[in-house]
């Protein structure tokens, strides 16, 4: 398995902290939170001597695929895909939706599926790999694709890859090992973070209620090549370094 760290906890001027993290871990970064000039400046520093590759988190503020009037989504993703292509990113994370408009959920899902189809085609033409992430939180009223509906998407898109956000799935009551097994080899990545089941808290692994051992065992069995991305809201550099050592020893990842 390929272990990566998301830059969520190290955005802006904290990129210097990221540079001090273990070089054996890859990098995932939120492209829309900086300009191309910013990334051209800081990525060489963050990636210097770093192993295990890089992935890009696609737009989640500028774009909401569930909105009918969001006509700029292709333009925004085109820019993201161009940059991902430039740096040789392994994949680009795509959210199905953000907050939900007050429309029939069936209509919203059809709209999102149509837009995902366009993005997958665009990625294919550009030589970039989009991966579809489960998003939405039942307590917040933003869950558009429940577990059954999300697991139908591989049938709609037989060539697409998927990313399982474990924290989102936990809040929504999904069985984590079974979901990983259902996605199987189509599972190209996971966002790993913990919570207490009530909200998307992005805590570090072990600081919540998720049962991690059965989940990691399921991953090793069905998606051993998946990229595991630690997507924490905060953890200082020295704490992250010790944390990663502990994760590898405890779970063999």
Structure description:
With 253 residues, the chain is of the alpha/beta class. Helices cover 40% and strands 15% of the residues. The chain has ten helices and eight strands. It has helices at 15-19, 36-47, 73-87, 105-126, 147-150, 153-156, 166-171, 176-183, 212-222, 237-251, and strands spanning 2-6, 26-30, 54-57, 92-95, 130-133, 161-165, 187-192, 227-230. An eight-stranded parallel β-barrel has the order 1-2-3-4-5-6-7-8. Strand 1, helix 1 (15-19) and strand 2 (26-30) form a beta-alpha-beta unit. Helix 3 runs parallel beside helix 4 and helix 8 (176-183) runs parallel beside helix 9 (212-222). The longest helix is centred in the middle third of the chain and has 22 residues, at 105-126. The model has no long low-confidence stretch (mean pLDDT 96).
């Amino acid at each position: 398995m390929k272990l990566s760290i998301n830059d969520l906890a190290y955005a802006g001027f904290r990129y210097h902290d990221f540079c001090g993290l273990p070089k054996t871990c890859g990098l995932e970064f939120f492209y829309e939170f900086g300009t191309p000039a910013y990334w051209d400046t800081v990525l060489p520093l963050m990636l210097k001597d770093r192993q295990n590759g890089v992935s890009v988190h696609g737009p989640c503020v500028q774009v909401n695929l569930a909105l009918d009037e969001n006509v700029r989504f292709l333009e925004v993703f085109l820019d993201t895909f161009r940059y991902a292509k430039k740096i040789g990113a392994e994949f680009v994370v795509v959210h199905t939706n953000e907050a939900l408009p007050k429309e029939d959920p069936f209509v919203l899902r059809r709209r999102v599926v149509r837009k995902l189809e366009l993005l997958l085609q665009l990625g294919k033409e550009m030589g970039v790999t989009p991966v579809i992430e489960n998003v939405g939180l039942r307590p917040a009223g933003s869950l558009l694709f429940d577990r059954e509906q999300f697991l139908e998407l591989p049938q709609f898109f037989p060539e697409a890859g998927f990313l399982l956000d474990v924290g989102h799935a936990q809040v929504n009551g999904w069985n984590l090992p079974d979901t990983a097994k259902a996605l199987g080899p189509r599972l190209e990545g996971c966002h790993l973070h913990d919570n207490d089941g009530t909200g998307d808290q992005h805590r570090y692994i072990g600081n919540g209620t998720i049962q991690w051992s059965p989940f990691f065992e399921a991953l090793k069995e069905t998606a051993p090549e998946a990229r595991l991305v630690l997507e924490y809201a905060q953890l200082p550099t020295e704490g992250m370094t010790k944390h990663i050592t502990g994760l590898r020893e405890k779970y063999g990842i």
